[in-house]
Amino acid sequence: MEEKVVAESLFKGKKENYPGSIKEMFVDSRLENTQQNMLWSTFDTKVKQADEKVQYSAPVTKFDRHGYKSRKRVMVLTDKHLYLLDEKSYLLKDKVPYQQITGVLTSSFSDGVFVITINMDENGSKGDLILHSDRVVENVTKIVIHGKKSDACRVISETSITHGISGGKKGCIEFTRGQTSAVKKAKNGNLCVVCTMPFVSNLIPQ
Name one Pfam family in it (predicted). Predict the structure, then answer.
């Protein structure tokens, strides 16, 4: 119940797909049994620190900062770090200490994209993380709770979000309306997120 209260404070009246996200309980893992076994056998033994505790795990799609190629990942939240793992091998792809996260951004539309902004002054920072999930409200709420980032979460009402790339460069994610949801690289080089209109029933306050 506490998680739903946090989600309400973050998204109610701000993000179009919030009402549909609260119809079922939030859980600690969105992985299937075989995926969960891989997490235990590989991540627990080869990746995470011995004193870390896994708090949440879920499949996500990551978009490259350059070129926006999509890659299947598993997001794991512990009590210390946010991890992104290769979907098949479960080996480490990204590891971000919570103290390096400066923002968790989503649009106000019905899409599942969220951007984790990272302190570029930290050594080894490759830039912000661009992620997509069918459960964006749950994902972001979990990051906010376990990373203690309630003040860093923002729902952006504009039609674009700027993200950082190593070397001080910037990229742009554009949001637009369409009949079919899609996330793809646009002709202008930006990442284009096509958002459908939510059902009218989903706009009724919960």
Answer: Myosin_TH1
Q: Where are the domains of the chain?
A: 2-158
Residue pointed to by tokens 């969220």: 114
- What's 197's DSSP letter? P
Least confident of 23-32, 131-140, 158-167, 196-205: 196-205
| Annotation: CATH topology of 2-158 | PH-domain like (2.30.29)
Place of tokens 């971000």: 96
For residue 47, the one-letter residue type is V
**What pLDDT does residue 157 have?**
94
In whole angstroms, give the CA distance from residue 74 to residue 86: 7
d(CA 27, CA 57): 9
Check if the beta carbon of residue 99 is closer than 8 Å to that of residue 105: no
Closest-CA residue to 92 (of 23, 39, 35): 39
Structure tokens at 109: 């539309």
Instruction: Extract the tokens encoding 78.
Output: 């512990």
How many Å apart are CA 150 and CA 163, to the nearest integer? 19
Q: What tens digit of pLDDT does each residue of 184-204 get? A: 999 999 999 999 987 554 444
CA angle 169, 174, 178 (to 5 degrees): 160
